[in-house]
Design goal:
8-stranded parallel β-sheet; alpha/beta; Lyase, Ornithine Decarboxylase, Chain A, domain 1; TIM Barrel
Length: 373
């Protein structure tokens, strides 16, 4: 008798698709430009430990993370290359990440002083990336378009300038006109920084540009693209990128209910005819968000079954009256599947009212993961 718990719902991770997506992505990177694979949110919910080896197979030499747990998981997966944090960090995080040789991002004088204290106390900092706030992100970069920001930047450079190995930003928009505007401004800000310090442009990794920048068709000046979404098939399906995750559950109950019966909490839905309903073992606790009420459908036996009533914590109800042969234990596909009714990006975005990066990271962190080659 197996002691492995049977999952109520689960994510199937297609490793072959990730490898192919990476191959296609690397083919888009201009010659001489580096590629940083972003492993935020445990590799967008896919599991860092299983994804990093796929990156190493194709020679990826730089990985971007946000948390110390992610940096540890990357190193435990055997990666020995460059590891960059893609957000500001607390002093405790900075200290804790020293063992994993994380290059920190700094965008304030306060953070620079914290890192300086760590260095003075013997901490071996692998490198520091100066984060600039370029054209509207206003997240964690220093604002050098103002006199006050310029003065702060000079003081920051006085503190840690000798340890800076890169300058970075994150573009707020990838709409062509705005992207060109941001890229030009970033170039100017990098030049100002170098002109007002001992930094040399030739010694720095100057990086900006995400997945959406890479596929925008615009040629921007950057030493490295930092991409996550493209690895998981979130963009450009027309060029061969495929979603790398599927979310599935099972039918756990079948029942016949009469016209006039109501479905779910608060009697949300009334049956207009006798219907056969299936209870599916997934709900908002596993990432089937309540916002899908009234507009959701799942795939059972390759046919779409509308979801009725309000979403419960651990179950949903689907109308299977028009699907023959449904049995308890049948697979119920929330995202993915095969055939003409497969539930892929457009359907998921419409149903859940959010982007795929949000859905993938949510589903993958909430559900057990099964890996397919």
């Amino acid at each position: 008798m197996s002691d492995i718990p049977v999952p109520s719902s689960w994510c199937e991770i297609h490793c072959d698709r990730i490898s192919r997506n990476l191959e296609l992505a690397l083919g888009l990177v201009p010659a001489g430009v580096e590629f940083c694979a972003v492993m935020k949110a445990d590799a967008y919910g896919h599991g860092i430990g299983r994804i990093v080896p796929l990156l190493m197979e194709q020679g990826v030499s730089c990985i971007g993370i946000t948390s110390n747990a992610e940096s540890r998981a990357v190193r435990e997966a055997g990666f020995t290359g460059r590891l960059i944090r893609l957000r500001a960090a607390t002093p405790q995080e900075m200290t804790g990440a020293l063992v994993d040789c994380v290059e920190e991002q700094v965008g304030s004088l306060w953070a620079a002083k914290q890192l300086r204290r760590i260095i003075r106390s013997g901490g071996q900092v692998s490198g520091i990336h100066l984060a600039l706030n370029c054209d509207g992100m206003c997240r964690d970069g220093i604002e050098v378009s103002t006199k006050a920001g310029q003065q702060e930047c000079r003081e920051l450079l006085d503190e840690i300038g000798t340890h800076i190995v890169g300058i970075s930003t994150h573009f707020p928009s990838n709409e062509p006109v705005l992207l060109r505007q941001s890229a030009a401004l970033f170039k100017q800000q990098v030049a100002w920084t170098c002109n007002n310090s001992t930094l040399k442009r030739s010694d720095l990794l100057v990086h900006a540009g995400s997945t959406l920048t890479l596929v925008s068709g615009e040629q921007i000046e950057t030493d490295m693209y930092r991409c996550g979404a493209i690895l998981y098939g979130i963009v450009k399906p027309e060029t061969g990128f495929r979603p790398s995750i599927e979310l599935k559950s099972r039918v756990v109950h079948l029942g016949n209910y009469p016209m006039g019966a109501t479905v779910g909490y608060d009697r949300d839905t009334m049956l207009k005819a006798d219907r056969r309903l299936a209870c599916i073992s997934i709900g908002y606790a596993a990432g089937y968000n309540r916002i899908a009420q009234g507009r959701g459908a799942i795939l059972i036996r390759s046919k779409l079954a509308p979801v009725l009533g309000k979403i419960s914590m651990n179950s949903i109800v689907a109308d299977v009256s028009d699907i023959g042969g449904v049995e308890i234990g049948d697979e119920a596909v929330v995202f993915g599947g095969n055939g003409p009714n497969a539930l892929f990006p457009e359907a998921a975005i419409k149903q859940f009212g959010t982007i795929l990066a949000d859905l993938f990271s949510d589903w993958g962190l909430r559900n057990p993961r099964i890996y397919r080659r």
